[in-house]
Amino acid sequence: MANITRANGTLTLAGNWDADDIALFQPVLRSWSFYGQYGIQHCDKLSEQKKSASFYGCGRWGFSGTLESFHAWTLDWIKNHGPLTEQQYQEFLDRMHQKELKIEMKYTDDGDEYLVEEAGFFVSDGEQLEYYTITSNPVDIPWEEYGKECFDAAADFFRSFTVDADDLKLKKWVKQWIRPSHCYLQYTPQADVYDFLEDNMFMMGNAFFYDEVLFDALQLNIKLKEDARLEEMYRFLDETYGIDCKMELPENYDRSYLEEQESDEAFIGWYERLDER
Q1: d(CA 258, CA 88)
Q2: Which of 6, 115, 259, 275 has its CA 20 to 30 A from that of 84?
Q3: What Å distances lie between residue 209 and 23, 73, 137, 178, 243, CA to CA?
Q4: pTM beyond cutoff 0.70
Q5: Together in a domain, 11 and 131
Q6: 224 and 151 within one domain
Q7: How many structural domains comprise the chain?
């Protein structure tokens, strides 16, 4: 079953929308609740005097991808449900195109394992409705929200790529560089590394790392185990993100960026306060 995300934000009618245009939009907007699982479940009243309204909705894997599917889903809804008709929808598309009207969307999308702030807009070419994402910025959820068990699972996952890693050095690196996720609790030593990373890529917020130099930072204090598992990690990063982990940093690179940003004492205090979840 697809992961259901929850979006809350503002819908704005941009351009010269008049009362007739808004009246054409209303039955379309009502149809966008679709089956009650994906789409816009509620939107406050719109009018010529109030062209911005709060809304909440649900996404299939992500709300932006759901918005991109609205045109196809609307046609399916007309065919199988109604009461919106094909004529009404076509008139709405024509009006948006003729007057160059936009429907702007700005919202926060919560997928449990990630939180993003996004913005985009709908436009019409007279034949279909197109949605374009303008910005998509992840909102970092701290390790404190996941707890010690989850943090330790992440440390154990990356420990498996090292040779006798110092526990404190490794955990400080995880806190500084690794995006929090529950997925590390699911990893077992028998699991294929590439498959695990690929299967959980979405849960990790599209990347489990904050920066492409994270392994350079790790190797300041910890030796990596040069084996087939590490090669699979590197292959995943290369094929998925285009990152060559074997590429040497330029001589003029500021390596102070790779250094630990927290004292041992401060980290130990933080770690001891992590709640078990």
Answers
A1: 58
A2: 6
A3: 47, 35, 15, 5, 11
A4: no
A5: yes
A6: yes
A7: 2
